[in-house]
Amino acid sequence: MAVMPFDDRDGWIWMDGAFLPWREAKTHVLTHGLHYASGVFEGERCYAGNIFKLREHTERLIRSGRLLGFEIPYTADEIDAACIETVRRNGHAEAYVRPIAYRGSEMLAVSAQHTRIHLAIACWGWPNLFGENRMKGIRLSMARWRRPAPDTAPTASKATGLYMIGTLSKHQAEAEGFDDAMMLDHKGDVAEATGANAFFVFDGEVHTPTPVCFLDGITRRTVMRLARNRQMKVVERTIRAEELPKASEVFLAGTAAEVTPVRAIGEHGYTPARITETLIADYEALVRMSPAEVARLSA
Predict the structure, then answer these.
(1) Which residues are catalytic?
(2) DSSP letter for each residue of 64-126
(3) pTM, rounded to two decimals
């Protein structure tokens, strides 16, 4: 399959307060964020011209930077406006939006107190992470790598470095013929997939792991609210790996994955059914509402 490289495209990227032609949006090879993973990012989706839950994403971006010890030099209003204008300038009604903030090249050592903090925003057309066939359900392997304990990494942040083990796990899964991988936490309990939160149906109830060492996703919280709006019981708890065969339905939730059914985790099979189908439909309806309607339903 031909892949369009990300450094050779038409369009515009917002960088540090100005728009640059896509191919000219560059950073130095000795940038601290590249060498020491001192960067944070967001993944957002624009539906019908509106970026879904933009302010929540922007506020998390700012919090993530603070967890890594730096302040992004723009207000939430300024970041929101830049995201909206990036989508408009690139002519997208449906798009994936990627803001990223990172330490610059003024210092290159573990200590980098005097680096400039940069912010860039790009967007491009990107359908669901798992493609058009996702509705039949994806297959997950069990990852070798585990999510780190919250006292070993800033696990509440959307930090670039935390995704290294996700890349390793997904590459291994793909090499084995799977679509993605289910990751355990440092204790051996169920955590999440490589880039999306996980939900399980046990006895007609929706269960999801408590996010003690991984990101409490915006899509995750949205799906939980949608389930409760349907009078479904939602349980956040520790889910042990040995419980996986007992689930009747499994699905993932994330900005890139949206709501995606799972039909297998390793040797264990699942059948996407009423709960998964209902939440997929409700999520797809919600993301296409106006920002005012979304805010009202999320209050």
Answers:
(1) 158
(2) HHHHTT---SS-HHHHHHHHHHHHHHTT-SSEEEEEEEEE-SS--SS--TTPPEEEEEEEE--
(3) 0.95
